[in-house]
């Protein structure tokens, strides 16, 4: 304990100028061994304040103040029981703290310290309960008795000592100055002071005796004053009794005024609530009659029903407190409102459903439009008939959403029958106008173009060619008719969408135009923004339009099939027309596009792209598999001509198209197929020279692509030029071997010996390549024979080369240059290998040039 006491004083309280009076080791009741130390401390400096401090010991054996309470806030000390063995006690501050002491002696000492401080400094403000008198009033330990006695004595001395006032100090000084000679003799001085005190006491006693009469007079005056005070008190008591009754009356009056005020306030509030209920829950008699009659056929009755429905909605939408619904009048009124609402809902649903059925069963008048003029059906009269009922549909939507949700479905089911008949008739007329036939021969016209390989419609006859002009619609008629169909469909779908959005109060978020570039998926750069999956566009308006126009997409698909069958490559016209129409529709700001129509056209555009790609794939396959005629002697291959005709036709069709990505891909595929077809000639068994045929065809493709200037085919144009040059070189080298065949064969052997390591000057000593053998070979090619061979070669080239390509001068000049090069090479070999032999050719370079000039001039 001594070490704990000193440690607490040294480490905790001395630095804070606090004096430790008592300590006790405790823990919270019920939480044993979570030890804390309660310390009673007092300020070392005045004014002294007393505190109860809770100290905790951390893991490093360091003391830390956890909480501190001013002792003045302590209200009650509860010892829990008078039993000395109990270690529990409670301290009541603003909150009750329950503690358990480590020993009963510490508990008694701690409570005794609190009791002393309570009596000495707190005027007994703390209440002690369940505390034995022994710990509070009993004897302490000897060292504690001595300590308490010393503290008490010091406190009494401090309370007994009083400092002299300045006047008292001055009197003492004056007295000491007066009796200064006697101050040195203290005994004499004390005797003198005692004598003076006796004299003063005697004088005071005499003065008191002499003033006895005055005292008697003063006492009588005091008695009279007391009697007067008694009378005043009696008077005040009477007045107080009177005022007490008045106060009771005033309190009663005030209470009654307060009650009257509450009555008036309650009455005002009651009147306000009654006026609120009677005003807002009151439906006019004329409105009740209008709802009961439900006259929806006449304009005046419909107008009255609209006004009555709006008034009924206003009454039923008023927010009232739940308790008001228990009032009989309010409950009856609400029941009446609900009855009127249900009856009118049934009447309105029945009436509007009858109108839907009548419109859906309406007959399509075939004589409304002339045969040669195509126009889509117009439902403006139907919409005008239903427009006055728009306020009632809005009322029904708010009043009964479940019942309203079936109304658009009923409309779609009935109107879809009418639209099916009208759309079918519309596309039937469009097909007849496209094929230029009446209804009886329409099926025949559809089946006739299907025979692709027949003589009536050859597979490769394009629109505009003489083979396909007979009994085939004008090539511009497909575009014209498809554009007219799309123009007629747009206002039809847009008007219907706007009507149902307004009539059924639907909200349709129009998708934004997004053009995604790149990728090989369906949403390519050429795809319209509407070609998203249908699940993303399944909004209320779109779902309703899909049901109303359920036959639009199949009929449009069938019409596009007819367009595709008019001639083999009409799929190009369909693709361009659909693409321009879709993107032009989205780019137009005159009218908002129909998301449903845009979705349908987007699907048709994908179908058109698929048909176009299938057509191009078939064409590429046929070009690759096409075989050249075995008797072919030269000229342009049929696949090249087909490619040229397709490019001319497609470029004319796509001339005004906004996008041509699909066409560029098709051109590249077809060009690759044509090149493959030309390359396959190397393995073909042709009577004409293969290099010559390939040279002519590549030259023709190069000239054609230079004329067209198609950006995507620039690489193919350069490739065609390169291949043309390669095959012309091969052709020239092949045919030049004929005029000097044996001479070339001889010198080929010479070059082979040199390559094997034989020295050039030793070649003439080889038996097969001696000077005599060389002279024999040269003698076979005199100038006349060379000129004759060149004339024969010129006639043969002129015979096989195609006159359309005009390649004869070019090939003949290339042959002249090649022969001159060979002549120079042979002369050089003779000079190196047969030097000094005097062997020369029978003709010179000048002779060769004259031979070529004479042959060229003779053919002009």
Short descriptors:
single chain, about 850 residues, alpha+beta, PH-domain like, 8-stranded mixed beta sheet, 29 helices, about 65% helix, Exocyst complex component 1-like
Set down the secondary structure blueprint.
Elements (H helix, E strand, L loop, with lengths): L1 H12 L4 E11 L7 E8 L6 E8 L5 E8 L5 E3 L9 E5 L3 E6 L2 H18 L5 E3 L3 H5 L4 H19 L5 H13 L1 H4 L2 H25 L1 H69 L4 H9 L5 H18 L11 H33 L19 H7 L3 H10 L1 H35 L6 H6 L27 H29 L36 H9 L3 H14 L4 H18 L7 H31 L12 H16 L7 H19 L10 H19 L5 H23 L4 H16 L14 H9 L3 H18 L7 H26 L11 H14 L2
Parallel strand pairs: 5-8
Antiparallel strand pairs: 1-2, 1-7, 2-3, 3-4, 5-6, 6-7
SS elements, strand count: 8
Biggest sheet strand line-up? 4-3-2-1-7-6-5-8
The overall average pLDDT, rounded, is 75
Shape: elongated
* Main sheet specs: 8 strands, mixed
- The chain-level structural class is alpha+beta
The total count of helices amounts to 29
Oligomer designation: single chain
What fraction strand?
5-15%
- The rounded Rg comes to 64 Å
Helix fraction by DSSP (H/I, runs of at least 4): 55-70%
**Unreliable parts:** 138-146, 156-161, 438-473, 508-538
**Ends distance:** 142 Å
Task: Walk me through what this model shows.
The protein has an eight-stranded mixed beta sheet with strand order 4-3-2-1-7-6-5-8. It is an alpha+beta fold. Strand 6 and strand 7 form a beta hairpin. Helix content is 63%, strand content 6%. Among the domains are: 126 residues, PH-domain like (Roll); 77 residues, no CATH class; 181 residues; 121 residues, no CATH class. It is elongated, with a radius of gyration of 64 Å. Helix 14 crosses helix 17, helix 14 runs parallel beside helix 18 and helix 16 runs parallel beside helix 19. The longest helix is centred in the first third of the chain and has 69 residues. Keywords: Coiled coil, Exocytosis, Transport. This is Exocyst complex component 1-like. One of its GO terms (biological process) is exocytosis. InterPro entries: Sec3-PIP2_bind (IPR028258), Sec3_C (IPR048628), Sec3_CC (IPR019160).
